[in-house]
Amino acid sequence: MLLKKQTLGEFIIENQASFKYTSGELSRLINSIRLAAKVVNHEVNKAGLVDIIGTAGDTNIQGEDQQKLDVYANDKFIQTLTNRNIVCGIASEEEDDFVAINSQDENNQNKYVVLIDPLDGSSNIDVNVSVGTIFSIYRRVTPLGTPVTIEDFLQKGNQQVAAGYVVYGTSTMLVYTTGHGVNGFTLNPAIGTFYLSHPNMQFPEDGKIYSVNEGNYIHFPQGVKDYIKYCQMEEGDRPYTSRYIGSLVSDFHRNMIKGGIYMYPKHSKNSNGKLRLLYECNPMAFLAEQANGKASNGHTRIMDIEPTELHQRVPFFCGSKNMVEKVEEFIQKHE
Ligand code: AHG
Ligand code: MN
Ligand code: MN
Question: Which of 167, 198, 229 is the last residue of a domain?
Fold first, then answer.
């Protein structure tokens, strides 16, 4: 049965011609992500057995406690991407500043920058709940052979050439897009191979699931409060069901398969919400749009927002098209 399915390696080769830049580059990029994903997966899977759960004793630039696995995943992705002669810079949620690769080498012909959230949902590690990795890939805008600059990273989401995530769930999946739809690959851990299990993934236009941290309800803007009440009202196909894992990757993955909306609104104490534009929202927005869904900050398309800093946060509403449009309607009524 499995042997009939296409492997990720075969899929990359078969589809590389549709990549608008040099075809071999895409293969090298996705291959390096695939390799790092397997290494991190191996560690996540035995987290309860080895001394890898718990905090690392440090906080990241955003003041959040770093978990040991945050640091481990960050190191593995950076190491893997550094050694493949394809990436000239990496920005990570866990690093204060971007990391330049071979920046002193004038012959450095590496054209791509990668932005990553190495471990998403890390507060779920200690309790054996799904976590993920999110990645976003751009072509550098500064000339080849010169050091990368902040400009290479502060690009709008609509310039992404590829994006995706790994979900370390009941099974491990790699889901990505290069702008030609979204495909999902499931890892067979016994042989270490990803197989195409979810071709051409699509958000249903409507959904019945809303995902939001309702503990923050009293701090939400009135429009979001009203939308939540709308979801709970008995009328037509409502009430909707509430599902919130607290790992964006896992909540997004479920909503894409079943139909739903993920929301991280602004907050009376946190005027831009929590999620990071470059490492979380843009890659998820690219995937959502490629899967017939939508991603917005309540007013503007996420991928049209001009980034001003690496660790910038934005309110995030993402998922089934009609649901995102409905929450936008409620928000805009009040502002
Ligand atoms: P990270 O672990 O990379 O810091 O991201 C956690 C994010 C996201 O995955 C999740 O949906 C959200 O934070 C949960 O936040 P709350 O605990 O505030 O609901
Ligand atoms: Mn995250
Ligand atoms: Mn993270």
Answer: 198
**Distance, CA of 193 to chain centre:** 22
304 labeled part of a ligand binding site: no
* Pocket lining for ligand 1, CB < 6 angstroms: 64, 93, 117, 120-122, 213, 246-248, 274
Kindly identify the ligand whose nearest atom is closest to the C-alpha of 214.
1
Evaluate whether 175 touches 164 at the Cβ level (below 8 Å): yes
34 & 82 share domain: yes
Q: Within the chain, which residues score under 50 in pLDDT?
A: none
CATH of the domain at 16: 3.30.540.10
Is residue 204 included in any domain, yes or no? Answer: no
Count of C-beta atoms within a 10 Å radius of residue 295: 23
- pLDDT, residue 125, reads 83
3-state DSSP percent of the chain in helix, strand and coil, to 5:
35, 25, 35
Is 203 among the domain residues?
A: no
Instruction: Confirm whether residue 165 is marked as ligand binding.
Output: no
**Residue 84 and residue 60 share a domain:** yes
Q: Which long-range contacts (CB under 8 A, 24 or more apart) does 237-241 make?
A: 237/206, 237/208, 240/207, 240/208, 240/209, 240/210, 241/208, 241/209, 241/210
Residue 8: C-alpha distances to residues 1, 5, 249, 290 (Å):
16, 10, 20, 19
Task: For residue range 293-327, list pLDDT tens digits in order.
Answer: 999 999 999 999 999 999 999 999 999 999 999 99
- Domain of 132 in residue numbering reads as 2-198
